[in-house]
Backbone:
C-alpha cells in the first residue's frame, strides 16, 4: 500500500467529523463551566471537556497537523492568566474587608445563572486554567508520537539503503 | 449487617491490589497504573463515606423538592484528589517519555544507572 | 485593609501570585524574571518575619478562609459549635518553620539568578520554584488535614518536576521517576489516613479532630497513624524509606537541592511533630512504645547515612547521605521527647530537634549552594578531581569548611550546640543512646574531613587553572548563611530563647492549640 502524503492524519471521515464536532464540544465545555454552581460540573470538569476538543483534533490530524493551528505558547499564557484570575478573585474578599476567598459579591436567587457571587467567576477562572493546561499537556506529550514516527522513518530509510 | 461494609472492603482490596502492582511489576507504565488504582481506591473510599441510601446529588435547585442529599464534602474532597491525581499522572507520563528516550526501555530493572 | 490582619494568608499567596505572574514578566526578558522572583521570595520572607513577630506577641493566629472575620473559625448550629471552613492556624512552631523555609527560599532564589543562566526554560523553573515555596509554607501554616495533603501535593509535584528539570541528563530523569513513584505512593497513604480520620470523626480541622480523639479514641485512628507515619517518614527521607532522597537531591539544580535537603524534608519532620503532639496528643497514645520505635529508626538512620556517606565520590551525593544522617538526629530528638514528655529530658529533646532542624536547614542549604558553585566553576562533582580549591576560591572554601565542621558537630559552630543538647537529652533516657549518637557524629566528621582534605586543601590538579570565586549574587547568600552558622554557634541563646523555646512551648501545649479554634 502506498503511504499517503501525511501519514499522521486519520481518514477523511474522522477528520470531517472532528471538524464538525469541534465547535459543539467547545460549547458544551463552556456550558458546563458557566453552569458549574447550579448543576453537576464546574470549572475542572468543563475545562477537561473543552480540552477534549483539542485532543480530538490531535487524534484526527496528528501532532504536525495541530501545532500549526493551536499555539501552545498562547495556551500556556492562558493557563497562567486563569490562575492569576482565581487568585485575584480570592483577593476581592480581602479588599471588601472580609477574608481571602470570602464571597462578597451579589448573591442573587439560588438556582439562577447569575447568583452565588464570586463562585461562577472562579469556575470560569478554573475552567480557563484547566482547559488550556490539559490541552497544552496533551500536545506536549504527543511530541513523543512525532519523534517515534521520525525514528521509524529514519530506520526504514536506513534499512533501504 | 455486612452490606454496609461492602464499599469499604472493596476499596481496601483495590488499594492492596494497587500497592501489589507497584511492588511486583517491572514495567514503568504498569507501575503507574498501579499508582492510579491505589488513588482510585481512596477516592472510592471517600465517596462511600458520604453516601446515603436514596440520596440525590447535593445540588439545591429548589425545584424538585428533594429531601435527602448525599454528603457533599467527601465529593468535594474526591474532586480535589482527582485533580491532584491527574497532575501527578501527567507529570509521571511526561517523565516516562523522557525515560524511554534515555534508556530505550521501560523495564525498571534496566533503569538503574544511579548507584551508591 | 490592615496588612497585619491578613498576614497569615499573605505568606502563602505571595509566592503563589509570583509563580503564575512570572511567565508574563519573563516576556520582558530573563533579567526581569530574575528580579521578579527575587522580589516575591523576598516579600515572602518579610511577611514570614512579620507573621513570626505577630505570633510571638499575641499567641496563636487563626485565619479562616471565606469567613466574614479572620478569627471566626466556627459556626453555631442549634447550639452545636464546630469549625466548617478551611483555616490556617499558626503557632510558634509553624511560624518557625515558615521563617526557615522563606529564608532558604529567598537565598536560593537570589543564587539561581546566575546559576541558571545557561539553562533554557528559566521562567518555568521560576514558576515551579515559587510553587514549591507555596506548598511548603502551606503545609506548615494550615490547620486542616486535607488542606495539608493538598499543599503536600503542590510541593511534591513541583519537586518532582524540578528534580527532572535537566531532562537532557539521564541522572535527572531517572531520579525524577523514582522520586515520583515512591512520593506519590506515600501521598496516597497520607490521603487514606485523612479519609479514615474524616470517616471516623466527620471533620478535617486539626483542632476539632484532636478534641474528638481526646473525648472518644476509636481503634481506627491507629491505622491512620501508621499510614500517616509511613507517608511522612518517606517524605522526610528517614531510613528505611530514604532511597529516593539519595538520587533525587543530587540530580536537581543546586539551588533546588539546597531547598530539597534544607527544607522540603523538614516539612515531613514538621508533620510528624504536628501529628504526634497536636493531632493525636501524647495522652491517648502509648508514647513509650511509639517513642522507642522512632528512636530505633533514628539510630539506624544516623548510621546508614553516616557510613554510606563515607564512601561517596560524588560531592552532592555525599551531602545527600549527610542529610539522611542529620534527619536521624532530628528524629532522635522527637523520639526522646515522646518517651520523656514534659520532663527535662523531653524538653531538651524537643529543643535539640527543633534547633537542629533550623541549623541543618542553614548548614545543608549553604553546603548545597557551595556544591553548586563548584559544579558551576569546575564542571565536576567528583571529589577526586578537585584539589587545592582554598587557594583558587578562598571565600567559598572557607564557607565550606565552616559548614562541614558545623554539621559534624565541631565547636564553636551551631551544629555543635544542637547536637550537644541532643546528646544530653538522650543520655538522660539511656547513656547508650548518647554514645551511639556521638559515634555516628564521628562518621559525619570523617565524611566532611575527607572532602575538606581532598578537595579544598592539598595541591590543585593541572586542569583547574583559572577558576575563582563565583559572582557576587551567588557568593552573598553563601556568606550570609556562613555568618549565621558562626553567630548561632557563638551565641546559641539568641535563637534558642527567641524562637526555639516558644516553638517548644507551642508543641507541648496542645490545649492552647485546641482552644484557639474551639470556644
Residues:
Amino acid at each position: 500500500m502506498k503511504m499517503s502524503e501525511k501519514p499522521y492524519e486519520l481518514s477523511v471521515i474522522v477528520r470531517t467529523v472532528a471538524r464538525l464536532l469541534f465547535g459543539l464540544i467547545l460549547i458544551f465545555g463552556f456550558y458546563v463551566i458557566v453552569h458549574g454552581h447550579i448543576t453537576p460540573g464546574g470549572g475542572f470538569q468543563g475545562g477537561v471537556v473543552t480540552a477534549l476538543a483539542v485532543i480530538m483534533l490531535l487524534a484526527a490530524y496528528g501532532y504536525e497537523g495541530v501545532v500549526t493551528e493551536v499555539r501552545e505558547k498562547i495556551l500556556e499564557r492562558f493557563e497562567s492568566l486563569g490562575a492569576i484570575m482565581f487568585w485575584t478573585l480570592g483577593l476581592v474578599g480581602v479588599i471588601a474587608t472580609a477574608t481571602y476567598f470570602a464571597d462578597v459579591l451579589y448573591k442573587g436567587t439560588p438556582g439562577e445563572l447569575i447568583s452565588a457571587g464570586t463562585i461562577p467567576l472562579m469556575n470560569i477562572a478554573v475552567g480557563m486554567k484547566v482547559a488550556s493546561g490539559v490541552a497544552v499537556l496533551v500536545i506536549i506529550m504527543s511530541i513523543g508520537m512525532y519523534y517515534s514516527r521520525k525514528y521509524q522513518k529514519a530506520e526504514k530509510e536506513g534499512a533501504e539503503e | 449487617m455486612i452490606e454496609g461494609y461492602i464499599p469499604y472492603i472493596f476499596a481496601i482490596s483495590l488499594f492492596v491490589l494497587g500497592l501489589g502492582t507497584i511492588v511486583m511489576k517491572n514495567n514503568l507504565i504498569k507501575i503507574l497504573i498501579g499508582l492510579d488504582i491505589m488513588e482510585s481506591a481512596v477516592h472510592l473510599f471517600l465517596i462511600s463515606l458520604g453516601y446515603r441510601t436514596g440520596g440525590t446529588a447535593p445540588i439545591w435547585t429548589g425545584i424538585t423538592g428533594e429531601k435527602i442529599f448525599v454528603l457533599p464534602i467527601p465529593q468535594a474532597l474526591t474532586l480535589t484528589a482527582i485533580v491532584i491525581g491527574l497532575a501527578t499522572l501527567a507529570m509521571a507520563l511526561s517523565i516516562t517519555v523522557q525515560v524511554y528516550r534515555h534508556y530505550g526501555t521501560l523495564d525498571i530493572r534496566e533503569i538503574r544507572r544511579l548507584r551508591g | 485593609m490592615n496588612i497585619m490582619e491578613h498576614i497569615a494568608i499573605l505568606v502563602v499567596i505571595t509566592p503563589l501570585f509570583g509563580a503564575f505572574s512570572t511567565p508574563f514578566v519573563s516576556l520582558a526578558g530573563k533579567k526581569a524574571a530574575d528580579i521578579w522572583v527575587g522580589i516575591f521570595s523576598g516579600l515572602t520572607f518579610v511577611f514570614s518575619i512579620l507573621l513570626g513577630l505577630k505570633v510571638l506577641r499575641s499567641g496563636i493566629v487563626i485565619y479562616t478562609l471565606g469567613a466574614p472575620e479572620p478569627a471566626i473559625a466556627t459556626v453555631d448550629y442549634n447550639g452545636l459549635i464546630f469549625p466548617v471552613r478551611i483555616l490556617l492556624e499558626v503557632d510558634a512552631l509553624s511560624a518557625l518553620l515558615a521563617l526557615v523555609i522563606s529564608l532558604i527560599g529567598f537565598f536560593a532564589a537570589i543564587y539561581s539568578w546566575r546559576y541558571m543562566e545557561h539553562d533554557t526554560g528559566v521562567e518555568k523553573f521560576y514558576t515551579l520554584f515559587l510553587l514549591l515555596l507555596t506548598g511548603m509554607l502551606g503545609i506548615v501554616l494550615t490547620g486542616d488535614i486535607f488542606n495539608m495533603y493538598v499543599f503536600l501535593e503542590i510541593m511534591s509535584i513541583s519537586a518532582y518536576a524540578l528534580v527532572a528539570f535537566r531532562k537532557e541528563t539521564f541522572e535527572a530523569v531517572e531520579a525524577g521517576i523514582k522520586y515520583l513513584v515512591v512520593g506519590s505512593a506515600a501521598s496516597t497513604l497520607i490521603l487514606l489516613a485523612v479519609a479514615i480520620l474524616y470517616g471516623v470523626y466527620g471533620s478535617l480541622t486539626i483542632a476539632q479532630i484532636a478534641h474528638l480523639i481526646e473525648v472518644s479514641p476509636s481503634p481506627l485512628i491507629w491505622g491512620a497513624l501508621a499510614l500517616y507515619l509511613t507517608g511522612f517518614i518517606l517524605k522526610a527521607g528517614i531510613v528505611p524509606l530514604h532511597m529516593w532522597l539519595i538520587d533525587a537531591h543530587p540530580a536537581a539544580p543546586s539551588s533546588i537541592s539546597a531547598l530539597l535537603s534544607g527544607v522540603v524534608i523538614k516539612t515531613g519532620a514538621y508533620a510528624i511533630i504536628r501529628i504526634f503532639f497536636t493531632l493525636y496528643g501524647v495522652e491517648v497514645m502509648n508514647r513509650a512504645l511509639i517513642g522507642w520505635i522512632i528512636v530505633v529508626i533514628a539510630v539506624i538512620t544516623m548510621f546508614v547515612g553516616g557510613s554510606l556517606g563515607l564512601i561517596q565520590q560524588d560531592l552532592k551525593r555525599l551531602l545527600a547521605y549527610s542529610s539522611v544522617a542529620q534527619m536521624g538526629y532530628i528524629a532522635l530528638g522527637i523520639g526522646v521527647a515522646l518517651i520523656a514528655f514534659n520532663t527535662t529530658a523531653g524538653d531538651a529533646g524537643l529543643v535539640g530537634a527543633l534547633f537542629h532542624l533550623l541549623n541543618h536547614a542553614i548548614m545543608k542549604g549553604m553546603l548545597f549552594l557551595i556544591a553548586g558553585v563548584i559544579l558551576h566553576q569546575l564542571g565536576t562533582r567528583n571529589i577526586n578531581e578537585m584539589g587545592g580549591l582554598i587557594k583558587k576560591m578562598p571565600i567559598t572554601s572557607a564557607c565550606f569548611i565552616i559548614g562541614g565542621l558545623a554539621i559534624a558537630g565541631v565547636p564553636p559552630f551551631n551544629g555543635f550546640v544542637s547536637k550537644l543538647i541532643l546528646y544530653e537529652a538522650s543520655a538522660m533516657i539511656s547513656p547508650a543512646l548518647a554514645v551511639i549518637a556521638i559515634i555516628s557524629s564521628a562518621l559525619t566528621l570523617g565524611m566532611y574531613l575527607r572532602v575538606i582534605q581532598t578537595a579544598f586543601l592539598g595541591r590543585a590538579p593541572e586542569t583547574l587553572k583559572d577558576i575563582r570565586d563565583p559572582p557576587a549574587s551567588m557568593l552573598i547568600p553563601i556568606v550570609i548563611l556562613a555568618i549565621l552558622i558562626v553567630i548561632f554557634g557563638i551565641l546559641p541563646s539568641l535563637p534558642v530563647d527567641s524562637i526555639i523555646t516558644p516553638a517548644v512551648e507551642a508543641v507541648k501545649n496542645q490545649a492552647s492549640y485546641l482552644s484557639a479554634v474551639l470556644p
Chain A touches chain B at residues 38-40, 44, 110-111, 134, 137, 140-141, 143-144, 147 (CB under 8 Å). Chain A has one domain: 12-160. The CA atoms of residues 59 and 104 of chain A lie 43 Å apart. The mean pLDDT of chain A is 82.
